[in-house]
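re the bet — no i am not wrong, look at it urself. input seq straight from the record:
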Amino acid sequence: MLMRTDPFRELDRLAQQLMGPGTWSKPSAMPMDAYREGDEYVVAFDLPGVSADAIDIDVERNMLTVKAERRPVTRADDVQMELTERPLGVFSRQIVLADTLDTEHIQADYDAGVLTLRIPIAERAKPRKVSVGVGSGRKEISG
């Protein structure tokens, strides 16, 4: 139901880490998991240290875009950083959603640094029974 848009994701992620933080025009990638759970797809993004108001989710047609920004923490003037490994900047991910998903009813929850999107499967895509009618007999066509 979900299609990857970038076959070289791991290579891009490594390059992003080496090149530094992302900007709004060139964001860094964010790790994610996607799986089906019952009648919905679940997509979970790792966004530790990002505040909920710094997350932007857009859906246009079948393209889901998630952008988030991890901003620097304000510290006192007398603080001297010894080690900084957690990346700052903008993170983004785009996913092409299948036509069988109901993009009108996406639910988003953010807890413990994980953004979880739940996308229901559209009713028209769910399996259904088709009843077979019994005719009233044979009909002959004359002409």
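see?? The mean pLDDT is 82. told u. also Strands lie at 2-3, 32-37, 40-46, 55-60, 63-70, 89-97, 107-111, 114-120. so pay up
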